[in-house]
């Protein structure tokens, strides 16, 4: 259970504020005004603290409770502005568009790609196939993964496809994330950017039906992840 001790607002208020910020294209000041219209007076600074504190905790629980994904992956990067500079958001989905994993990084190189694939495989298992773009770093890392699998996985390897058009489903998925981050007008710090992106990805997973809902609303699914 995620603890809400030490905050001066009811848990339901905090969860509604965090969910609506992560799910819809609003700024903190927009959200402050929306809450005020409902009689809840809270400054935009606490709203930011709530998102940074609770979004990554909820994201961890979402990863552990998501529905099974397929073994055919699509992997690519998009761009998010942090501290006035463009940073790389590594993302992977399966062939059905279900989110596998994501990672924000200031660099785009072999070491980062290796870290991302290690995370994705650790939480989703070894895929049968991965589709990537023409990135040499991503290709080199997958080839390294195959070298390891040849010695530890009984000879099984991952089929690698470099075809831009096959990643169209991921490109469309990028657009949803960018639409939500647009009104945020860039992030001021790397840790808050990573925390917020984790929450946005979680809200997106709920929207796509990756978290079992049993007929519950998206907000109730989100709130249930804190229990």
UniProtKB/TrEMBL annotation:
Pfam families for this protein: DDE_Tnp_IS240 (PF13610)
- The residues that cross the membrane are none
GO biological process terms held by the UniProt record: DNA integration; DNA recombination; transposition
Q: Spell out the SUPFAM superfamilies in the cross-references.
A: Ribonuclease H-like (SSF53098)
Name the PROSITE patterns on file: INTEGRASE (PS50994)
The name under which this protein is listed is: IS6 family transposase
Q: Which GO terms describe its molecular function?
A: DNA binding
Query: Any idea where the Integrase catalytic domain is?
Result: 64-226
Q: Which UniProt keywords apply?
A: DNA recombination, DNA-binding, Transposition
- InterPro entries tied to this protein: DDE_dom, Integrase_cat-core, IS_Transposase, RNaseH-like_sf, Transpos_IS6
